[in-house]
Amino acid sequence: MIEIQNLTKRFGNKVALDNVSFTVNKGEILGFLGPNGAGKSTTMNIITGYISSTEGTVKIDGHDILLEPIEAKKKIGYLPEQPPLYMDMTVDEYLSFVYEIKGCKLDKASHLDEIKEVVKIKDVEKRKIKNLSKGYKQRVGLAQALIGNPDVLILDEPTVGLDPKQIIEMRNLIKELGKDRTVILSSHIMQEISAVCERVIIINKGKIVASDTPENLSRRFSETNSVIARIEGDSFQVLDTINNIPEVTSAKIYSKKDDGVCDYLIESNTDIRRALFFEMAKINCPIIMLRSNELSLEEIFLTVTNDNAAAEQAQNPEGQAEGQAEELSGELEEGQKEQVNPGLSNNEKGEDNDESGI
Amino acid sequence: MKAVFKREFWAYLNAPIGYIYIGVFLALSGYFYALNILSGIPSLEYVFANCVILFLFLIPVLTMKILAEEKNQKTDQLLLTAPVKTQDIVLGKFFAALAIHTVTLAITFLYVIVIEIHGKPYYSEIFGTYFGFFLLGAAFISIGEYISSLTENQVISAVSTFGILFLLYVIDWILPLFSNQFIAAILKYAAITIWYEDFTNGILSLSSVVYYLSVIFVFLYLTMYQLDRRRWKS
């Protein structure tokens, strides 16, 4: 349905997108995940024909967005990051305008009514858009994208600025809409992607760093048969006992909790959860919590985006200063990187401290 | 194009801006007209000459937000990703502003009717002038629309449009200073208000019509280029 090949976008010297290729199949909900400034909006703006790419092609159902823009655009409903609303119009006037500018052929009254019903804006249809709350504005933006029943929906961070209840409603709505449409959804919130999407593309600094289903990603990046157990009891005795289980290859204290309670990271050849239970029962050390150490999408995200940055720095250590100068305009991106890095290093530090404490 | 025209025309009439244009123009031109009547002159020549100056001030008000605000509010994302051609957007907006301008001119026709009741107006001159105003206004609007497409800021748009229109207007004043025929001829092409003078004498000058249509075409084309540039530049 959507074919994207070797997409590159440069703004002056800054490379916003670097050779990005992917396809989205009919009826698929694709999640587009990345830190702020990674190139998500740029990609979406190129797909919808708002800006052009420096290199590469975008085809919507076989129509090239630059060569046959009208045909391609007819198939797309787009909700940009900031909903394109005319504040001086009422909801009805606005939707009527969008209906006309899209050259929609469906019966006007019933089509618009149906959409207002779906996104639940019937009760504000006569109100001026500038007087609506952020949540309603977002929904009017989504209504606008749905006009003309496009096959493809492109939604740029559709839940930003909504309250938790509205976020859940919006996610359910997107899932519902995705049943008979192709949807590309961007977000920097991981739960959102794993809740809604069938496939995830993680993008960082204009490059695709991972692409798979949320489950596969989580499996791929997690070490096999690694569990975290929170056990009460003398840590020496516990560690000793764990190490005596034949299948265990390594065990260490992951973090210290309150008196006599520690989290242990245990790696093994096979699933040792049962064995662990019985061994701990023998020495009277209760297991308070036990979970397999699968990475959440959030952790994968931090891992891949951080690896990527680290790899780049290793490749081009001198380029760092240069890169920073180039990115003066992309402060958000830098900000995000800084946010990510201390988070991880704190974590590592925490681990180190614990280990030295043994 | 129809949808864009409707939305834009609607926006003029649902916001102060359309009424400011119509109201201020009618109030000031009415003042000049009253002075004219009080002096007992059946010709509207002086009234119309002052109207050109009003256009210089007021057309930038009409065109300042025409594209600048779309960019500022990001509503251009809706227009440029909708299945419409760029020229439909540019022309729709152009005709909406031109419609407001035309409505204003139509209302001023009351002045002529009053003269008709009490005296003998020179109709060839009056119709010529109205035709000239229509073309002059359209040319000013096309320039204003182009400048509005260059910025996101309405104030910058209005002030630069006024500056440029005023500059084109005052070229007329310095023309006699140039003895060099060639420079004088080139400057004459830039002096946008000179070309309308034939109309005020009741002459339907073809070269003036072609001149104004060319100005309109060039600036509307530049506006389209400006909107498409982002999408095609590599």
Description:
The complex is a heterodimer of chains A (358) and B (234). Chain A is α/β, with parallel strands linked by helices and 358 residues long. Among the domains of chain A are: 2-75 and 150-219, P-loop containing nucleotide triphosphate hydrolases (Rossmann fold), CATH 3.40.50; 223-292, ACT domain (Alpha-Beta Plaits). Chain A has helices at 40-47, 69-74, 91-101, 108-118, 134-146, 164-177, 190-196, 214-221, 235-244, 273-282, 297-315, 319-326, 331-357, and strands at 2-11, 14-24, 29-33, 55-60, 63-64, 76-79, 152-156, 182-187, 199-204, 207-212, 226-232, 248-256, 261-268, 287-292. Chain A is elongated, with a radius of gyration of 25 Å. Chain A starts with a strand and ends with a helix. Residues 316-358 of chain A have low confidence and may be disordered. Chain B is mainly alpha-helical and 234 residues long. Chain B has one domain (2-233). Helices cover 81% and strands 0% of the residues of chain B.
Summarize the structure.
Chain A contains 13 helices and 14 strands. Chain A has about 350 residues and is α/β, with parallel strands linked by helices.
What would the keywords be for this entry?
heterodimer; A: 358 residues; alpha/beta; Rossmann fold; 6-stranded mixed beta sheet; 13 helices; B: mainly alpha; 11 helices
N-to-C span of chain B: 28 Å
Question: What's the story with the biggest beta sheet of chain A?
Answer: 6 strands, mixed
How many domain units of chain B?
1
The strand line-up of the biggest sheet of chain A is 6-7-8-3-9-10
